[in-house]
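Hi C.,

You asked whether I'd gotten around to modeling the 189-residue construct. I have! Everything is below, sequence then structure, no commentary in between.
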Amino acid sequence: LQAMKEHIEGVLGHFKPKNKTVWEWDVVNEAFHNDGSNGSFRSSFWKNTIGEDFIDSAFAYAHRADPNVLLFYNDYNTSNVNAKSTAMYNKIKKMLDNGIPIHGVGFQSHQTLEEYTPAFIASLKENFDRFAKLGLKISVTELDIRIKLPSDQNALKKQADYYREYLETVLANPACRTFMIWGFTDRHS
């Protein structure tokens, strides 16, 4: 815990000048298991040494180091309602209930064209809404929609439609504040 505290104080202290240059931090990134099938925590030095409450400690230290910056949890495979996003939701709700300072959640969305369905978009909206109802800000921190190569005009149109519907979902939710594309220079992703 002391090493974590010193690291967080060092980083946030370095970027806490009188002229504020950083207004939000991803305090903890990708703490839940990769595949999202059961919503368990992934093995890490922090989880294995401190336990699941390492997340609470990291946010508390970050808030003490800079009480004016927004603090986010960020993870992937969590855009729609699934076991991983539900575990993340439950953890963040518990943090809020316990007075742990957290202001937002970041969603890394690495999608495939095959996932693009009306059901996915509805689940995306439902998921964003439940986090917004907790009073959290929402950021899409990485979005790409991969297609199989070689592509054709039909696949490119479907990909464009998917991006459009995803962005419309973000714009429709007042809690959503950031929309970032992942791999913008990739010809088809």
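If it helps when you're writing up: Residues 110 and 144 are 5 Å apart (CA to CA).

Thanks,
B.
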